[in-house]
Amino acid sequence: MPETRPIIALDFPSAEETFMFLKKFPDEESLFVKIGMELFYSAGPDLVREIKSQGHSIFLDLKLHDIPNTVGAAMKSLARLGVDMTNVHAAGGLEMMQAAREGLLSVNSATKLIAVTQLTSTSEQQMQHDQGIMTSLEESVLHYAQLTNEAGLDGVVCSAQEAAEIKNVTREDFICLTPGIRPAGAAQGDQKRVVTPAQARINKSDYIVVGRPITQAENPVLAYKSIYDEWNN
Ligand code: C5P
């Protein structure tokens, strides 16, 4: 079953701003939040523990990409934080992903591990020009998804436009976590391949990640509720 809560991307520069944002929500509301590089590099593991202790679920989005030994060791450190989900770049390769999984499992088997295929900000032309991958964007994404499955990971980060096809070439319960979500009429920002929450559900996303449409909204709680409803109905 897909996760009912949209994952809120906490793209804030500091712990202070993050807590100011979280305080807008009722105390008893358990959120699913994403902590990415910006916040983690400024506020660190203490912030992760604090948000966890407030009863929220956490996707630690650090997109690791390094040699297998380093990524495996880094995953051990992250696993000790007890986050619900974390990730690597599939471009790091099969061996790196296997090492990541082994590192994680050696400490904690509850944390889900997924991989980034192609960033949702990447166009096909950029992929071909910058990465020298001379296939279509879709083929590259499907290839990375299959590689991720082969490495034994739980799923991928992808565009909602690709989710159904990814499940076709992997398995039905392979997690498709999809950023690049915009309610109708919202600013697209730097995202290139966006879909609405309702369309993401139709397209078989299991988790949606929403940042600016909630964090930059005049009323973030209302924006969250409306995206929540659109995703669940
Ligand atoms: O503000 P917005 O809704 O565009 O935020 C999307 C979040 O998802 C950002 O934190 C971005 O880094 C992240 N993300 C993404 N595309 C990926 C992986 C992560 O947009 N493929």
Write the topology of this structure.
Blueprint: E1 7-9, H1 15-22, E2 32-36, H2 37-53, E3 57-64, H3 68-79, E4 85-89, H4 94-105, E5 112-116, H5 124-131, H6 137-150, E6 155-157, H7 163-169, E7 175-178, H8 197-202, E8 207-210, H9 212-215, H10 220-232
Helix pairs in contact: 3-4
The protein binds cytidine-5'-monophosphate (C5P).
The site of cytidine-5'-monophosphate has 16 residues, from strand 8.
What does it look like?
- It is built from ten helices and eight strands.
- It has 233 residues and is of the alpha/beta class.
- It has one domain: Aldolase class I (TIM Barrel).
- The chain has an eight-stranded parallel β-barrel with strand order 1-2-3-4-5-6-7-8, surrounded by five helices.
- Helix 3 packs parallel to helix 4.
- The longest helix is centred in the N-terminal third of the chain and has 17 residues, at 37-53.
- The radius of gyration is 17 Å and the shape is globular.
- The chain starts with 6 loop residues before the first strand and ends with a helix.
- The mean pLDDT is 95.
- Cytidine-5'-monophosphate binds at residues 9, 11, 36, 61, 116, 119-120, 157, 179-180, 189, 191, 209-212.
